[in-house]
Design goal:
Elements: H1 11-19, H2 24-33, H3 39-43, H4 51-63, E1 67-71, E2 79-83, H5 85-88, H6 91-104, H7 109-120, H8 122-137
Antiparallel strand pairs: 1-2
Helix pairs in contact: 6-7, 7-8
Amino acid sequence: MKNKANRSGCPVSSMLDIFGDKWSLLIIRDMIFSGKSTYGDFLKSDEKIATNILASRLLALEENEVIKKLEHPDSKAKVLYVLTEKGIDLLPILLEIQFWSDKHLSVSTEIRALLKDAKKNREKFIKIMTRDLKARMDISQVTTDIM
């Protein structure tokens, strides 16, 4: 997927080549806002993704260097998925999508509370979340990448 030619030079079109399916941004959302990092974690999401679709989307996100797969520190039978810098850079975009949804659609009380806090100081919220996501990413210094 990484070497796939884009349909055009349009940034929106190019982004859709990676995230234009129903599931990829939900996986990233779960990683950013819920701290999910294993295959089993993603299967427990409210949207009920099928296992074959999840495997396909995780592979595509990995091939596009949005996430990377690491050895799980507690279990050789599991792997951890962590965001790369490229994946972490999606935080402000997903936050803006959530702000838009809060304004125009119905969202849960829990999410509304998170967004209320985020709206008070977006830059500070993004800075703190980015720091936390990078700390999760730094697990790679402790574990070895799976090849």
